[in-house]
Amino acid sequence: MVNVCHQESAEAAWEAAAAVPDPEVPCVTVADLGILRWVRLEDGVAVAGVTPTYSGCPATLAIEFAVEQALREAGFEARVERVMSPPWTTDWITAEGREKLRDYGIAPPVESGGKATLFGAPTVACPRCGSTDTERLSEFGSTPCKAHYRCKACAEPFDYFKCL
Amino acid sequence: MALFEALLELADDHLVLGHRLSEWCGHAPMLEEDLALPNMALDLIGTSRTLYTYAGEVEGAGRDEDALAYLRDEMEYRNCLLVERPNGDFAQTMLRQLYFAAFMEPYWKAALESPDETVRGIAGKAVKEMAYHIRHAGEWVIRLGDGTEESARRMQEAVEELHRYTDELFHSSAAARGVDALPDRAAIRPEWDRVIGEIFAEARLEIPQVPFPQQGGREMQHGEALGHMLAEMQVTHRAHPGAVW
């Protein structure tokens, strides 16, 4: 058990959980993505609130296991709760998270969630050369959260983190 | 228990259609579609899981998502007949998808105003996913309907085959009616008619007259197709009761 005061151990628990990388996009952490909602100490147990990105995201369970494991390794008894409300949107991704996605070669979401029109497609800048002369190859990419694009300026194909 | 029954109707629709889409995995006509169809299947199955989990809590009999998905027989499933129809060709799959998504998107939008917090949470996620599904299926229905002679013929055949099943989307069984937490299915009809009408006009498809709409799934009377599908979906779980990852 940790022998520090409540406040400090709550912070330590947050830091341990927040550092867990996303299993499918390991350049960002669960805190960068905004899917770690909170960590509380309840009767000495660190309880983390985690929210799924997409309804069918296969990584949800892996993320919950990884957060629980990280809290245990930091010396806490741990439990994870799945938080459904309010629902996650791409607006929860932090500015730092967006920067990390771009550096990794994934175009971050460009518009606020919920604005997608029936047949409109957003203008996405290439994460490598910055050109907006890009085209959508497929709305469904390598994971449920990504679409597949190609840059017509530098010819690189790239993933786009879809707006939700 | 009307809420339990109504949640099962929703969950069964999502699981059955999700499983049907997953049958395309490895068989789609091009790589992009081979990714897109299982992607959408994941959305649908993921939504069904949260609905089953909530239904199990509402029922209070200790059944979890697995018990509700894998341990009920065909005669206990409450999905509408549309979602259990076999995949047929790509035109039929895309049309079935469009019919369903064009219903669910306004349905979830209405559910955002539900007095039930869990329903609002599920709706908030699903409504945006369904917008993608309408767009994807709508683009294909337009491309095929307004395409070559062959594609137009097959798309119109799909309409003749499937349109008779759409009426049931707007019905609940007697056991599932009058639930405050969920939107009224019948009220979704004008928006569904509008979206389908717009897409059909662009796809140059005709909406057929349906003198005798097909229904019965909500009352747990299914076509032959569902039993075969469930047998394949449930066999592993039933062969290894209680197995976990």
UniProtKB/TrEMBL annotation, chain A:
The organism's place on the tree of life at top rank: Bacteria
Record Pfam families: FeS_assembly_P, Zn_ribbon_PaaD
Every PaaD zinc beta ribbon domain range: 116-162
Positions in coiled-coil regions: none
Domain MIP18 family-like, residue spans: 13-80
Protein name (database record): Phenylacetate-CoA oxygenase subunit PaaJ
Source species of the chain: Rhodosalinus halophilus
Gene name of the encoded protein: paaJ
Automatic annotation (TrEMBL), chain B:
UniProt cross-references to InterPro entries, sorted A to Z: Aromatic_CoA_ox/epox (IPR052703), Ferritin-like (IPR012347), Ferritin-like_SF (IPR009078), PaaA_PaaC (IPR007814), PaaC (IPR011882)
Transmembrane domains' residue ranges: none
Biological-process GO terms, alphabetical: phenylacetate catabolic process
Superkingdom, taxonomy of origin: Bacteria
Pfam families: PaaA_PaaC
GO cellular component: cytosol
Listed name of the protein: Phenylacetate-CoA oxygenase subunit PaaI
